[in-house]
Design goal:
The complex is a heterodimer of chains A (about 675) and B (about 280).
Chain A: E1 3-16, E2 19-32, E3 36-40, H1 47-54, E4 62-71, E5 74-75, H2 81-87, E6 92-95, H3 99-102, H4 109-119, H5 124-137, H6 143-147, H7 156-168, E7 174-178, H8 186-203, E8 206-211, H9 214-220, E9 223-228, E10 231-237, H10 238-243, H11 248-255, H12 296-300, E11 306-309, E12 312-314, H13 319-324, E13 343-357, E14 370-382, E15 385-389, H14 396-403, E16 411-416, E17 419-421, H15 430-435, E18 436-439, H16 453-464, H17 470-483, H18 500-511, E19 518-522, H19 530-547, E20 550-555, H20 558-564, E21 567-572, E22 575-581, H21 582-586, H22 592-601, H23 641-645, E23 650-652, E24 658-660, H24 665-671
Helix pairs in contact in A: 4-5, 5-7, 7-8, 8-22, 16-17, 18-19
Chain B: H1 2-17, H2 19-36, H3 38-41, H4 73-109, H5 111-126, H6 129-140, H7 144-170, H8 174-181, H9 186-222, H10 234-242, H11 249-283
The chains are: A alpha/beta (about 675), B mainly alpha (about 280).
Chain lengths: ~675, ~280
């Protein structure tokens, strides 16, 4: 088969104030027609630069220092911008990350798609008809109606479908997808991936799929290329890459992903250190600084990109040792510190928490109130982790904020260590504040950029523990830094001098400043790079054992929850729909919604096979929660009218595993039984 | 404090590297020095009427010539810089301080306090500035204190709105939530957690307010509602010299040019500051 695109020895440089820095070095890549090629890398690895360079689309301060990009027999690096413009939108299309930003907010959807077709010389009527048929192809119901709407009237998933339709209208030979599902929920993401896969197969298009998510790429792509520090580390057919990784970086990335079936005593293998900056590229292998298997040679001499077998390349001095099995990298999961088992008794009890947001008022029209939390009750055992799983809009963040009282719940009761707790932050005394602390989602905004790390920590100690003698505070602050594995020099640094992972560790240290009883972690890893996530998860696990703390761990990432949580609650539209321990929730019987979440995530790297379940449509808005079972509008296992009218009962699946569904447990087991575990 | 010094020094260093902003800085500093050392710089008293020296064109003895009464225009411009810098400085300090406090509070509190106060600010903003100043000064009579009160009343709402919109972005930050979770007081949260993030916008706005206050003070002087005679006022000097423009054009050009140069200087400086802060924002 001929290659649609051939990148050969591409080196790209950016001009910065300090001079030219190399962003891509000697990159080679080829994609055949009908193939989906995954490009995986962490932030700063150069993956987006490479994707745009393949299109011939370069920022003003970039230049190609060497190499060629062959597309249809022509070298794109030799073309002028005007010649390239002929190709863009016709032969080569881009699906960008932010669909809403890519659509013109003041032009109707149909018109925007038709415009692309008219640019190909199609007459108006034909182009308009084509626009509607493209919308149908991307599985939008009521395509005629959607074509007349404006972008802001569509949900995120729909907007992404529209952008895909727009990219495919001209039947391009190459489609570049730049993290098109990153901002979408997992169930929506799964549906978009299916769509992309089918359309690319049907049109025989070559596709380059850029992502930071190894699991997602493995679900979708035929071939995967791993980039690091602007260089190709390895490229291989997906299955081979996962089952027999040859590069230490790939091995580390795969091993550091938590699995669904993992017992609570293990720790994740991690990749230590941080990626080198573009300006200070190491002389030897770019990964050597973080590689567990690095030799002196690796630091001194850059390894060549070698072909292992057709379609498989690797850039490592020691790949043959890895392939032969004589070099085994730490792949096994070590044991966590002992003493991590939950204790009897509860640290927190929440009963019937309700929170409704209403907007508008005083001259503005009052919009329908949003029911963010609907009678949510939960218990957290001492020294245990309760995981909360759900998609955006499920109310999981509101739950966290109501417990720490950053939001005041409308009604319900809270008990901390059997003492009633006020719902209002102002009425909580210092010892309560001290026992309940929070780790925030976004490490970039959780630390004040104008305060040093040391100031942030000492201030927190002083506020929460005013009786602490002054001379002790400094040493306590240094002990906190040590506990999150940061050296004492970090005390005098400002947050913008830290990497994302380091900032999150400071955020964790702050939560532990005054020996809390319960720490609420709201998506603490979702803003971090894959290789850093496992470091943070391990740290949380260690701190639980050493400090005897409990967690409420909130995440949309079922893997991270599986790794850390003893018990899990699954939320949908402000309600809890399933409760159980990790093994119970992740294996049959499950609530049909949980089943769909798991199915959306399962990939090559998992040992659990899953039936393919895809949810239709988007979650209903929390201001109009469906009657009966809130999930009935999307449920693939809907029984009938009863689901639409009657609230489902809690069903006992044994051993404190509860599912809120009309389907009896035995039936759930039967229909989900074809899943081998 | 050390952090503040470091920040100030880094801003100064960057100003020096931008030629236009540096020129602006030199102009503003130059006028300030002239105002401070006016008695040493001016060769004559500002109200001294020199016998037989009326309507003299610029010469080495009278740099900007003399006016119809025989007063040295250069000396009057030099002394006039005191009034033109003093009143806008006071109004800028007052309106920026009060506006910042209001903006911080309503932006952070939100809810009905914000809605009510914001509407009041909108109402104040809807009034035409110069017209309101004229009406008020005409009714209560013109005095430096009156001018200051009027300008502060006009500019405080503008500063408050600028600050409020920055606060709206900052109050959702995780570090503000973290401060609440350790029980920080309202004043600590506002001044230590939020204010530093507002400061760049506030400094630029202060420079802008300063240049507009100079405009307004000069305009009021020109319209006869500024500082009363005999103390020199650039705006009134322009007006007085207007009648004898054909005979003594220099008496009008000199104060008009002084106003223009000072305002250009301030605008160059504030533009430079804005660019520096924008760059820091991107880097931070």
């Amino acid at each position: 088969m001929t290659n649609a695109v051939d990148v050969r020895g591409l080196t790209l440089e950016y001009r910065l104030q300090t001079g030219w820095v190399t962003a891509l070095e000697d990159v080679s890549l080829s994609i055949t027609a009908g193939q989906i090629h995954g490009l995986v890398g962490e932030s700063g690895s150069g993956k987006t630069t490479l994707a745009l360079a393949i299109m011939g689309y370069l920022p003003a301060n970039a230049r190609i220092a060497a190499g060629e990009i062959l597309f249809g027999g022509h070298d794109l690096t030799k073309r002028t911008v005007d010649q390239l413009r002929e190709l863009w939108g016709s032969e080569i299309s881009l699906v960008p990350q932010d669909a809403l930003a890519a659509l013109n907010p003041s032009i109707r959807i149909g018109e925007q798609i038709s415009e692309v077709a008219r640019r190909q010389g199609k007459p108006r009527a034909e182009a308009d008809a084509l626009a509607v048929s493209m919308l149908t192809q991307v599985r939008i119901a009521d395509a005629e109606d959607v074509a007349r709407r404006y972008p802001h009237q569509l949900s995120g998933g729909m907007q992404q479908r529209v952008v895909i339709a727009m990219a495919l209208v001209s039947r391009p030979r190459l489609l570049v997808l730049d993290e098109p599902t990153t901002s979408l929920d997992v169930t929506t993401q799964a549906a978009i991936l299916d769509l992309v896969r089918d359309l690319i197969r049907a049109n025989d298009t070559a596709a380059l799929y850029v992502s930071h998510d190894l699991g997602l790429v493995s679900q979708l792509c035929d071939q995967v290329t791993v980039v690091y520090g602007g260089e190709v580390m390895a490229s291989a057919p997906t299955r081979a890459l996962f089952q027999r990784p040859l590069h230490p970086y790939t091995i580390g990335l795969i091993a550091s992903r938590p699995r669904f079936t993992m017992d609570s005593e293990t720790r994740l293998p991690t990749i230590d250190g941080v990626a080198p900056s573009l300006a200070e590229r190491p002389r030897g292998c770019v990964f050597a600084g973080r590689c567990a298997a690095a030799l002196d040679r690796c630091h001194a001499e850059k390894p060549p990109l070698e072909t292992v077998e057709p379609g498989r390349t690797v850039k490592c001095h020691r790949w043959s040792e890895i392939a032969a099995g004589t070099l085994v990298l730490r792949q096994s999961h070590e044991s966590a510190a002992v003493g991590g088992e939950p204790l009897p008794g509860h640290v927190l009890k929440a009963n019937d928490l309700v929170k409704t947001f209403s907007q508008g008022g005083l001259l503005a029209r009052r919009s329908a109130p949003v029911h963010a939390l609907n009678e949510v009750s939960l218990n957290i055992r001492r020294r245990s982790t309760l995981g909360v799983v759900g998609e955006s809009g499920s109310g999981k963040t509101t739950l966290a904020r109501c417990i720490v009282a950053l939001e005041t719940a409308d009604s319900g009761t809270l008990e901390l260590l059997s003492i009633p707790l006020s719902l209002n932050l102002k009425q909580r005394d210092r010892s309560t504040l001290r026992s309940l602390q929070m780790i925030f989602q976004n490490p970039n905004d959780s630390l004040n950029p104008y305060h040093t790390v040391g100031h942030i920590l000492t201030r927190t100690i002083q506020r929460l523990d005013p009786s602490a003698p002054r001379p002790d505070i400094q040493s306590r602050m240094l002990r906190l830094l040590e506990a999150v594995r940061l050296s004492p020099e970090y005390a005098s640094r400002f947050p913008n001098e830290l990497s994302g992972g380091e900032r999150q560790r400071v955020g964790i240290a702050r939560a532990f400043a005054a020996d809390p009883a319960l720490v609420i972690a709201d998506e603490p890893t979702s803003a971090l790079d894959v290789s850093v996530q496992s470091v943070v998860l391990n740290l949380l696990k260690d701190l639980r054992a050493s400090k005897g703390v409990s967690y409420l761990f909130i995440s949309h990432d079922l893997r991270a929850v599986a790794y850390l949580a003893d018990w899990i609650i699954v939320m949908y539209l402000g309600q809890i729909i399933e409760v159980g321990n990790a093994a119970q929730v992740y294996l049959a019987p499950s609530h049909p919604y949980t089943e769909a979440l798991l199915s959306a995530l399962a990939d090559v790297g998992d040992d659990v096979a899953q039936e393919l379940i895809r949810l239709e449509g988007d979650p209903p808005s929390a201001s109009h929660i469906p009657r009966g079972c809130p999930f009935h509008t999307r449920c693939p296992r809907r029984l009938g009218e009863i689901c639409e009218t009657v609230e489902p009962p809690w069903r006992d699946a044994g051993d404190d595993h509860f599912i809120r569904c009309h389907i009896p447990i035995d039936d759930l087991i039967r229909i989900q039984k074809d899943v081998p575990s | 404090m050390a952090r503040a010094w470091r920040g100030l020094r880094s801003i100064l260093r960057q100003l020096i590297r931008r030629p236009l902003a540096f020129i602006g800085l030199l102009i503003v500093l130059g006028f300030i020095l002239v105002a401070i050392f006016a008695p040493w710089i001016a060769p004559y008293e500002y109200d001294a009427i020199l016998r037989g020296a009326a309507r003299l064109p610029p010469s080495s003895e009278h740099l900007f010539g003399t006016d119809t009464l025989g007063r040295d225009v250069f000396s009057r411009v030099v002394y006039g810089s005191r009034e033109i810098l003093l009143i806008p400085s006071i109004t800028t300090i007052l309106s920026v301080t009060i506006g910042a406090l209001i903006g911080l509070y309503i932006g952070y509190r939100g809810g009905w306090v914000d809605r009510v106060v914001s509407r009041v600010l909108d109402a104040l903003l809807a009034l035409p500035a110069l017209l309101l100043a004229l009406v008020m000064l005409a009714t209560v009579g013109s005095s430096p204190v009156g001018i200051i009160i009027v300008i502060v009343l006009l500019y405080t709402p503008i500063v408050a709105r600028v600050v409020r919109s920055s606060v709206l972005n900052l109050r959702t930050m995780g570090y503000v939530d973290a401060a609440r979770l350790r029980g920080e007081s309202l004043s600590y949260t506002l001044t230590q957690e939020i204010l530093p993030g507002v400061l760049p916008a506030l400094i630029v706005e202060a420079a802008l307010r300063f240049s507009y206050a100079i405009f307004l003070t000069a305009s009021l002087g020109f319209l006869g509602l500024g500082v009363q005679p005999p103390s020199p006022d650039w705006g009134r000097m322009v007006n007085e010299a207007r009648d004898s423009f054909r005979l003594t054009p220099w008496a009008m050009w000199a104060p008009a040019a002084a106003i223009a140069v000072l305002i250009i200087g301030i605008n160059l400086l504030s533009d430079g500051l804005r660019r520096i802060f924008r760059r820091e924002g991107q880097m931070g």
